[in-house]
Amino acid sequence: MRWIATLASAIVLCAYALPVKADSVVINTGNPNGLMATASQPSSAGKLEFETADDFILSQNTAITGGTFIGLLPTTGANVLGVTIEFYRVFPQDSTNPPNGNVLTRVNSPSDVAFDTRSSSSSNLTFTTAVLNNNFTAANSVVNGIHPSPNQFTGGEGPVSGQEVLFTFSINPDSLPANHYFFVPQVQLSDGTFLWLSAPKPNGPPDLQTWIRDSNLDPNWSRVGTDITHQGPFNAAFSLNGTATPEPSTLLLIGFGLLGLVTLKRRG
């Protein structure tokens, strides 16, 4: 019977190596619509951390392999020093619940902490940039006007112009189970603050608006449109690529199912 055990191991390993669906676009919110630009950068010497988050839904297990996002470099001559991306689940996962009440609501917000982070400084993310427009203007912006309730409304900080830049990034596959998530890209510049540009609401599954926070508001988040500017709601310009992957339990069932067929044939 030793051959059966050996065959079982081989079949299970083969099941894990079964081909999966080719790399495809998981979500694409489209091109910037010029309505909003929001701060999103990692902390660095003399600079606060800003995070802008927009959501996406996975209907099946998916290995995220990369994607794009489009933002504004508002300072002439600023160099891109690094890129970080984060994935958050939806509150109250990965969070203190109930929250501390410093924002109007946490319903449908990102969670308190990211469950996965990739950064070009850690060599687990690579990126390229391409200038789309040397003079792009967003009608409103949110950078410094991020305050706890009841002072969350500022109306935004007005129009901002700069270079419209496409960021394309790749990561080692990050396997995510079917769920609702938030995507946060951050860009470190040599000068000024990176601003993520808004995009039309994507068609399809239920969609949540963009949320933002800085180091002072952390772990809370405010809605860019509903809370801070009383405009919108807004979405952000990004896309994600991924590969659908079967559940490990499904792969095991396939393997043991094949083993059962071989065993029945042997007995016959």
Structure description:
The protein is an alpha+beta fold and 268 residues long. The protein has one domain (20-245). Helix content is 15%, strand content 40%. The chain has 3 helices and 15 strands. Strands 1, 2, 4, 7, 8, 9, 11, 14 and 15 form a 9-stranded mixed β-sheet that branches. A hairpin with a 7-residue loop joins strand 12 and strand 13. The protein is globular and about 45 Å long. It starts with a helix and ends with a helix.
Would you tell me the overall average pLDDT? 87
The biggest beta sheet reads: 9 strands, mixed
Compressed to H and E, one letter per element, the order equals: HEEEEEEEEEEEEEHEEH
Q: Report Rg.
A: 22 Å
Our estimate of the beta-strand percent is 35-45%
Q: Please tally the β strands and state the result.
A: 15
SS-derived structural category:
alpha+beta
Helical content (DSSP H or I, runs of 4+) = 10-25%
List keywords for this structure.
single chain, 268 residues, alpha+beta, 6-stranded antiparallel sheet, disordered N terminus
Question: How are the SSEs placed, and which strands pair?
Answer:
Elements: H1 2-16, E1 24-28, E2 37-39, E3 50-58, E4 62-73, E5 80-89, E6 116-119, E7 125-138, E8 141-142, E9 160-176, E10 179-189, E11 195-199, E12 211-214, E13 222-223, H2 224-229, E14 235-236, E15 238-244, H3 248-267
Helix pairs in contact: 1-3
